[in-house]
Amino acid sequence: MAKARTIFYCTECGNETPKWAGKCLACGAWNTIVEQETAPKAKSGRSPGVRSPFHAVKAVSLSEIDTAEELRFHTGMGELDRVLGGGAVKGSLVLVGGAPGVGKSTLMLQICGSLCGKNRVLYVSGEESTRQLKLRAQRLGVGGSNLLVLSETALEDVLQAASEEEPDILIVDSIQTLYNGALDSPPGSIGQVKDCTMALMQLAKGRNVTVFVIGHVNKEGSIAGPKVLEHMVDCVLYFEGEQHSTCRILRAAKNRFGATNEIGVFEMMDVGLSEVENPSQMLLSGRPDGAPGTCVTCVMEGVRPVLAEIQALLAPASYGNARRSSNGFDFGRAAMLLAVLEKRGGLKVSACDAYMNIIGGLTLDEPAADLAAILALASSYLDKPIPADLAAIGEVGLTGELRAVNNLDQRLSEVCRLGFKTCVVPRRKGKAPAPHEGLRVVEASNIGEAIRAALGK
After folding, report:
1. DSSP 8-state symbol, 225
2. Where are the alpha helices (DSSP H) in 166-211?
3. For a tag site, which of 183, 318, 387, 413 has the least CB within 10 Å?
4. Residue 253: C-alpha distances to residues 39, 233, 234, 262 (Å)
5. Spatial distance between the Cα atoms of 12 and 231, rounded to a whole number of angstroms
6. Cis peptide before 174 (omega within 30 of 0)
7. Strands 169-173 and 121-125
8. pLDDT digits over 179-236, tens only?
9. Which pTM value belongs to this model?
């Protein structure tokens, strides 16, 4: 019997090294190297516990491959289809990650209700019994003869069930509970997660089975396991949501078959997840009237414009040490905007504690939200509210100038559709924004003009 080989992994990036070190040479992280025993390899080069007949063994000419058949199919949830790039791709491996209790299993079980109408679906759960799955499916209103459930954690049994049942879609909940009996390491370890994912990838590519894999996230917010796991799959989706909020956001971090800047918005209800077709209206609901320190902007999430509310609060600092805090807005960019507001706008904000928050759990990472953030900070500092029907779109430079943003006409259309009457935008030379009925577009060259237009200062 061959002797097991010991390999050291980095838990952050998945880099393999022959010996332990305090610092990973690949990513530079400290104290992330762990020891892992690997199973002896068979003559074929694969682990003896993973007998996969699903991978292709014969090369074919590129000209002989038929692409006439439609590769995508709808999952039954429009928001999920949007994030996937128009629907799920046959033979793809999709990784869905999120914090415990955010609704990953609920999302996967809900799409089974529509998928099992025309496809054969196998739902494998390593965390719940078949009875528990039945009770949850009844609560969600999911059922059908084409929906098969299996409560199993052994990789060999899962592959055997997939070979016998020949499903079109396989859902594994979760990858951290799956284990290969040929490895001595416990389930959820780096070697187990990597080996099981490789076997599922061979199943997806060899049998043209669409595989959805649920993965847990660690305290840093990334998928638990080696970083190479995200490189192996075709699509990585993150399901995000605040603990005390019903809003859930599905975001694509990687997609080989579509864009990665799309989001899907859901609301957690008693009967499961409900799609939010108009996220702008939901994110702006409950906005206070006549309160200083709030401004609305329009950001692009993929090809869809979404209105977001930026809130800011400035208060006198205690003992001369100003504090800065930002939730949903880049901290470094917030500090830069505060410096620009003091230097170019003439407001002494350096002696104030500054807090910024994005309502609804959104994360704004595009410069088009700069102007709205500046106006919200100025409104809080002057204690003067911005009109409720005013929005602001634009990038702010270090000299206080306003720069143009892309897709301005599309953003203005969304602002007008939601009932806003005024929108402050950067001044463009030679070309004025397209007119929108009922919307007054105010152009400004710098933050001083924008503040005067919004606050009358």
Report:
1. S
2. 190-207
3. 318
4. 32, 11, 11, 9
5. 13
6. yes
7. parallel
8. 998 887 788 877 888 889 999 999 999 899 999 999 887 666 666 566 678 888 999 9
9. 0.75
